[in-house]
Amino acid sequence: QVHLVESGGGLVQPGGSLRLSCTTSDLTWSIYDLGWYRQAPGKERELVAGITSIGVTNYTDSVKGRFTISRDNAKTTVYLQMNSLKPEDTAVYYCNAVFEWKTRRFDYWGQGTQVTVSS
């Protein structure tokens, strides 16, 4: 059983910052593409940011210039630095790790961490 453990969520005022972390001891971390998703109440889960096994990043338009995804393979950790937070960033944030090889897909999720942006 693979466990991805997220941390770093919480309550922050608009304009503030948080850094989310996701780590595991169960995977060959470096070969996985990693991502942060979020799901707000009444909305579908969406990809916020992703980083491939070779370090290529992508972001949803609403967070470009404010969020930064990074990975530390030695620590088997992926981070999401979130700056200039807005109330619309409020959601449960989930870590995801994916590896595809031939016809097989390995897809793992964390349990989620709540981020609330409010004054």
Helix/sheet category: mainly beta
Weakly predicted, low-confidence segments: none
Strand content: over 45%
| β-strand number | 11
The coarse overall form would be globular
| Average pLDDT for all residues | 95
List keywords for this structure.
119 residues; mainly beta; 4-stranded antiparallel β-sheet; globular
What does the model show?
The structure is a single chain. A hairpin with a 2-residue loop joins strand 9 (91-101) and strand 10. Strands 2, 4, 5, 6, 9, 10 and 11 form a seven-stranded mixed sheet that branches. Strands 1-3-8-7 form a four-stranded antiparallel sheet, with no helix packed on it. With 119 residues, the chain is an all-beta fold. The chain contains no helices and eleven strands. The model has no long low-confidence stretch (mean pLDDT 95).
List the helices and strands and how they pair.
Layout: E1 5-7, E2 10-12, E3 18-23, E4 33-39, E5 46-51, E6 57-59, E7 67-72, E8 77-82, E9 91-101, E10 104-109, E11 113-117
Parallel strand pairs: 2-11
Antiparallel strand pairs: 1-3, 3-8, 4-5, 4-9, 5-6, 7-8, 9-10, 9-11
Gist?
The chain has no helices and eleven strands.
